[in-house]
Amino acid sequence: MFRLEVGFQAIGVRMSDKPSQLPPNLPSSPGTVQIQIELDPAVANGAFINFAMVNHTDAEFTVDLMYLQPQAPKAVVRARCIMTPKHLKRLIAAMQDNLAKYEARFGVVDLGDAPHFPTTQVN
């Protein structure tokens, strides 16, 4: 089991759907926050994914991250993330911000004209 200690500058945005209720170990005012993240070896290796599917209900979003082998009709779910709509929106914003930084450094990611993911029915 790996332990990472991550420091970041809090800017008044909390990942709680009830921002008025802070966990007891967090400071009440914005500032530097230390979070210990546990990362076991299997998760640390990561998983290659090239296919994703998003479903939702009125209360949550489910994101399935899959590996779809070329020329095979079957995808294997490598990870499933279930989150509230507010958390999904924050994740999308963070990903857009990181992609913008990536493209500023390495150039625009060209998706081409054709969709990357198959347009066939998923069962």
Number of strands: 5
What is the strand arrangement across the widest sheet?
3-4-5
* Strand content range: 25-35%
- Please state the structural category: alpha+beta
Helical fraction:
10-25%
Which regions are unreliable across 5 or more consecutive residues at pLDDT < 50? 6-17
3D structure, described in words:
- The protein is built from two helices and five strands; from the N terminus they run ββαβββα.
- The strands form two sheets. Strands 3-4-5 form a three-stranded antiparallel β-sheet. The chain has a two-stranded antiparallel ribbon with strand order 1-2.
- The chain is α+β, with helices and mostly antiparallel strands and 123 residues long.
- The protein has helices spanning 41-44, 85-106; strands spanning 2-9, 32-39, 51-56, 61-68, 75-83.
- The radius of gyration is 18 Å and the shape is extended.
- Residues 6-17 have low confidence and may be disordered.
- Strand 4 and strand 5 form a beta hairpin.
- The longest helix is centred in the last third of the chain and has 22 residues, at 85-106.
